[in-house]
Amino acid sequence: MPQPTEPNPNTQTSPEARLLALGITLPPAPKPVAAYVPSVRTGNLVFVAGQIPMREGKLVHQGRVGVEVTPEQGVACARQCAINGLAVIREACGSLDRVKRIVRLGVFVACDAGYHEQPKIANGASELMLEVFGERGRHARAAVGANDLPLGAPVEVEFVVEIEP
Hints:
- The protein is α+β, with helices and mostly antiparallel strands.
- It has a single domain, classed as CATH 3.30.1330.40.
- The protein is built from three helices and seven strands.
- The protein has helices at residues 15-22, 71-93, 118-133; strands spanning 39-42, 45-51, 54-55, 58-59, 99-110, 140-146, 155-163.
- The strands form two sheets. It has a five-stranded mixed beta sheet.
- Strand 3 and strand 4 (58-59) form a beta hairpin.
- Helix 2 (71-93) packs across helix 3.
- The longest helix is centred in the middle third of the chain and has 23 residues, at 71-93.
């Protein structure tokens, strides 16, 4: 069976086609776990609620990065959060091809005081945005340490996305 090929982020390939080339199938958009909505659109901006690393209804890992979760697992969790966020964006917009720009990611990393590698963990989400959207995936970002996240998740990622009208 042929292996997925790495898309060239400098080509004009659509984000939906890049996902296929990367071998990524988006799950159904995760449902909220409390009193909020998955996304809100205002004008051409879509704000996506914080996504935790759920896969098939379960956390991929649980605990704090650098304690119960390795940094490598933390990066994978950030990537899973980003995949879940893309599913929410697709549900809100109909297609990722409508995304004009990834504006900002907010990445929260559950960790102990003194842990300073949040930017490396956040790259799990940021690099996926570049793989899927090319230059349109370059974004502003915050990578913040937190003592605890919902359901014991090691990472949570929120998005601001500009879409075509």
